[in-house]
Amino acid sequence: MGGNIVFESLEGKNIVVVAPDKYRGIARKVAHELSKLENCNAVYWSIKHYSDTEAGFSSENWVVSIGNDSENSITKDFLNFIDLRLTDGGMHYGYDGNKAVIFAKDVGLSKEEFAQIIEEHNLVDNNKQLFTGPITGDTPSLLSLLILIPFVKLVAWPMVIAWGGISNKKLKKLATAISADLFFIKGEAGRWLEIEE
User: Fold this and answer.
1) Residue 1 pLDDT more than 50?
2) How many CB atoms lie within 10 A of CB 15?
3) In terms of DSSP bridges, do strands 91-96 and 99-104 run parallel, antiparallel, or are they unpaired?
4) Is the per-residue pLDDT at 70 higher than 70?
5) Of 25, 186, 13, 33, nearest to 99 (Cα)?
6) Would you put residue 67 in left (φ > 0), alpha (ψ -120 to 50) or beta?
7) Are residues 181 and 89 in contact, defined by beta-carbon separation less than 8 angstroms?
8) CA gap 159, 17 in Å, rounded
9) Is the pTM above the cut of 0.85?
10) Are 180 and 66 in contact (CB under 8 A)?
11) Other CB atoms closer than 10 Å to residue 55's CB: what's the count?
């Protein structure tokens, strides 16, 4: 099967969003949002599907890899030449040419910074439109709980309970979704695709 079959009759920028199964929902949402941009067509592919068909890809195809270097071998390869544009709170994205990455790594090491980014971009109030609620299944109340963390410095227990109640796996998925949110909120998707906004 050729890598361009899905885009054979489509004009514009053809984008493949590659992600491991655990980020399938985020990847589909990213593909949907990218397809809303002018002259863009995007689809989600598993890592295996992408790897099996990459040889047939045109150099004109665009690729977004979701998941960090230990979760997605495509991200690992891309990080050799992509400079990251966001590296705050364990959330990352970057791009170069027609390749982009979106992922989270070491989120637990910068909990206050993570919570500050959520608050700074008003992600709790905008939750309905963003990846974090509908895709990860996390509710605005979970994000609200995270927001409290920097403000409970005088009382250590609420902070320990808040972070203790969130598994590392769930936190990484939430941070990956927020990285995707910020890729669009900050206009990076349009800049990467060279679309006037």
Assistant:
1) no
2) 25
3) antiparallel
4) yes
5) 13
6) left
7) no
8) 35
9) no
10) yes
11) 8
Crossing angle of helices 24-35 and 168-185, rounded to 10°: 10
Burial 87-100 (b: 16+ CB within 10 A, else e): eebbbbbbbeebbb
The span from the CA of 66 to the CA of 81, in Å, is 16
For 44, residues 6+ apart whose C-beta sits below 8 A from its C-beta are 16, 17, 18, 19, 24, 27, 28, 30, 31
Instruction: Answer yes or no: are the C-beta atoms of 56 and 165 closer than 8 Å.
Output: no
Between CA 145 and CA 174 the distance in angstroms is 13
Tens of pLDDT along 86-130?
Answer: 888 889 999 999 999 999 998 766 667 777 787 787 776 554 444
DSSP string for residues in 83-103: PEEE-STTEEEEEETTEEEEE
Q: Computed over its alpha carbons, how large is the radius of gyration of the chain?
A: 17
Of 142 and 45, the structure prediction assigns the larger pLDDT to 45
DSSP characters for the chain? --TTGGGTT--SEEEEEEE-GGGHHHHHHHHHHHHTSTTEEEEEEEHHHHHHHGGG--TT-EEEEES-TTT-HHHHHHTTTPPEEE-STTEEEEEETTEEEEEE-SGGGGHHHHHHHHHHTTTTTTGGGSSHHHHH---HHHHHHHHHGGG-TT-HHHHHHHHHTS-HHHHHHHHHHHHHHHHHHTTHHHHHTT---
